[in-house]
Design goal:
Helix 18 crosses helix 19 and helix 19 packs across helix 20. About 45% of the residues lie in helices and about 15% in strands. The protein starts with a strand and ends with a helix. About 5% of the residues have low confidence. The radius of gyration is 25 Å and the shape is globular. It is an alpha/beta fold. The protein has a five-stranded parallel sheet, sandwiched between helices. Strands 7-10-13-6-14 form a five-stranded parallel sheet.
């Protein structure tokens, strides 16, 4: 950034002084201003590359609207100037809104100096369009997020903005949409990318395993505790902890989790000594937010704690051309895996894929392509080679209507599982294969529905 000119606008004089000292050795020129009324004049007189703009000023009500007002003024008269919004931790949602109005990024104060420098460096580099496109393309390939649809581009844009922050993120989406990939992509784009990414399927943990798995235990804490063991929180220290299926944990488990998040420390079973932990939390659930907001099911104070920002992962049926891209990706992967020489998908196979609503989302598409590769003896995949998941076939398309309650979906799933178990006389392996589930997943559902 040795050629960059940066303007910092904030009514906190101490922040202006500290930021000027930090940036001066790294850029060509740093201008600071405490009065936003003067910033347009400074932009007219100076060739500014990036403006660091506070969202609130002491002269007005702290709503963030002052920052949005001046952002719009800058983008209207100086559209090529990049603007980075400065926001407080509790106003991240408003900062995300600023991205839609033309801001290049936002940074939460108090920030780490390295984080601010990295943010400015990235924006300055991205003023070169070809470099920006190349960087984003490489990143997305590495993180396994395949898709060029408009809705996926919007998702990538949001990930690029929220990942470098320390905000806790809640990922929402139907089963099979790839929420775990999204979580990993956020970690890989974050400032913690060199530290651990620890995933826990908390929905599968029993009441007795929940504490020992997440918080660890000391030797002798219970019968089989023969040695000290760290929990997942400690393993994720300085990195990212991903709690999958968080919508399925009990109210008692929620209380224990909330305590750890509030205190930023865990107390292993059999100990009274708290251990500080520094983690970035990402959670995921297939439970709709309006259902999750029911306090008889989920604590609202925990929702606010885990949901500084939310990411909605789109279902496959809304992703248009991505279906073909994903199908071709899975075809190549499984052709290599099973040593098949399959050239591609015939036009009738592509039409069949495009015309299907994919209730099982990307996971169902993957299952269908893998099965087609295994069973095919041809040089290409035909329409008749593609069979969709039997469990999804038994769930009507109407299940995606926004008004359908979650317990109706569970009843449909229960009936599908019961039917498969009866058809195979209780054979778990055969029933799981037909339903497109692993044996462990089927066992969990059998226990859940008391079958």
């Amino acid at each position: 950034m040795k050629k960059a000119r940066i303007l910092v606008v904030d009514d906190d004089q101490d922040l202006l002084t500290a930021t000027r000292i930090l940036l001066r050795p790294n850029v060509k020129e740093v201008l600071v201003e405490h009065n936003p009324e003067r910033l347009m004049g400074l932009l007219e007189k100076n060739d500014i590359d990036i403006v660091l703009l506070d969202m609130n000023y002491k002269s007005a009500i702290n709503t963030g609207n002052e920052g949005l007002f001046w952002l719009n003024k800058i983008k209207e008269k100086f559209p090529k100037v990049d603007v980075v919004m400065i926001t407080a931790y509790g106003a991240v949602d408003l900062a995300v809104k600023s991205l839609k109005q033309g801001a290049s990024d936002f940074i939460v104060k108090p920030w780490q100096n390295e984080q601010l420098l990295q943010t400015l460096q990235t924006i300055y580099n991205e003023r070169l369009p070809t470099q920006k496109a190349k960087t984003q393309s490489t990143e997305r390939d590495q993180h396994g997020l395949i898709g060029k649809s408009t809705i996926m581009e919007d998702l990538h844009y949001k990930l690029d903005k929220v990942a470098p922050t320390e905000a806790n993120i809640l990922i929402l989406g139907e089963n099979g949409t790839g929420k775990d990939l999204i979580a990993n992509a956020i970690h890989q784009r974050s400032l913690r990318q060199r530290e651990s990414f620890v995933k826990v399927d908390v929905g599968a943990l029993t009441e007795t395993l929940f504490e020992s798995e997440l918080f660890g235990y000391k030797k002798g804490a219970f019968t089989d505790a023969r040695e000290d063991r760290k929990g997942r929180f400690e393993h994720a220290h300085l990195g990212t902890l991903f709690l999958d299926e968080i919508g399925n944990i009990s109210l008692q488990q929620q209380a224990k989790l909330l305590s750890v998040l509030q205190n930023r420390a865990v107390v292993p079973l059999g100990s009274s000594q708290p251990i500080p932990v520094d983690i970035r939390l990402i959670s995921a659930t297939n439970v709709p937010l309006k259902v999750l907001a029911d306090e008889s099911r989920f604590r609202k104070d925990l929702i606010y704690r885990i949901n500084t920002l939310e990411i909605q992962v789109p279902p496959l049926r809304e992703r248009g051309e991505d279906i073909v891209l994903l199908a071709e990706h899975f075809l190549k992967f499984y052709s290599d895996k099973y040593h098949k020489n399959i050239a591609g998908l015939e036009s009738n196979a592509l039409s069949k894929l495009k015309g299907y609503h994919f209730p099982g989302n990307v996971r169902e598409l993957q299952y269908s392509i893998e099965r087609a590769v295994i069973m095919s003896d041809q040089q290409s995949i035909r329409a008749e080679d593609i069979l969709f998941s039997p469990i999804e076939q038994q769930l009507p398309e109407e299940r995606f209507d926004s008004g359908m309650e979650s317990h109706n979906l569970e009843e449909i799933e229960r009936k599908a599982i019961k039917s498969a178990m009866e058809r195979y006389n209780g054979n778990i392996s055969k029933a799981a294969k037909e339903l497109g589930l692993t044996r462990a997943a089927l066992y969990r559902r059998l226990e859940k529905y008391n079958l």
